[in-house]
Design a protein that fits this description.
The protein is an alpha/beta fold. It has a single domain, classed as Ribonuclease H-like superfamily/Ribonuclease H (Nucleotidyltransferase, domain 5, 2-Layer Sandwich), CATH 3.30.420. It is built from 9 helices and 5 strands. Strands 3-2-1-4-5 form a 5-stranded mixed beta sheet, with helices on both faces. The mean pLDDT is 94.
């Protein structure tokens, strides 16, 4: 049985995209040490990212930018990323495991996917943990690149999250083209 795990990274930051990843492995396959990406050091995440990519049957990543997040909200943006991953993942999978407690498909698509929502799945289910690593590493690389464009915001360290220094910079300088206006409004 082929199982697809899905998770996202970047729902809470003030800047940058939300990234959704889907990864397919056979049922029972594991890479020892892979767990929720938030519980791994950057070095371990990058190491496991390479192992996951090399050993998976297929994977898909969707990047939903800050403009879409501002337009439709973060929850709908995450759902859009999940739907796009499922649509573009061109491999038959018998079971889809999604981190969280909410996902909605239209009636036609609902019958197409056998999926299960798992609260804290990124910490409990290998397939979801692997997707969490892919999503986090991808998003971190995007934010590290954005740091070269906007060095005063310190994206290399905060990855767009609302640290005190990041909030202070937003208040002092304003927002960039990658900031989520709806998230930053309370700081301006």
């Amino acid at each position: 049985m082929l199982v697809c795990g899905i998770d996202e990274a970047g729902r809470g930051p003030l800047a940058g995209p939300v990234v959704v990843a889907a990864v397919v492995f056979p049922f029972g396959f594991r890479i020892n040490g892979v767990k929720d990406s938030k519980k791994l050091s950057p070095t371990r995440r990058n190491y496991f990212y390479e192992l996951i990519i090399r050993n998976c049957i297929a994977y898909q990543v969707q990047v939903i930018n800050n403009d879409i997040i501002d337009k439709i909200n973060i929850l709908k943006s995450t759902m859009l990323g999940i739907k796009r991953c499922l649509k573009h993942l061109k491999i038959k999978r018998e079971l889809v495991l999604i981190d969280g407690n909410y996902f909605v498909l239209d009636n036609k698509s609902h019958k197409k996917y056998n999926y299960k929502l798992i609260i804290k799945g990124d910490d409990r289910i290998f397939h979801i943990s692997a997707a969490s690593v892919i999503a986090k590493v991808t998003r971190d690389k995007i934010m590290e690149f954005m740091d070269s464009l906007y060095p005063e915001y310190d994206f290399i360290k905060n990855k767009g999250y609302p640290t005190p220094k990041h909030i202070e910079t937003v208040k002092k300088i304003g927002i960039t083209g990658i900031h989520r206006k709806t998230f930053c409004a309370k700081y301006l």
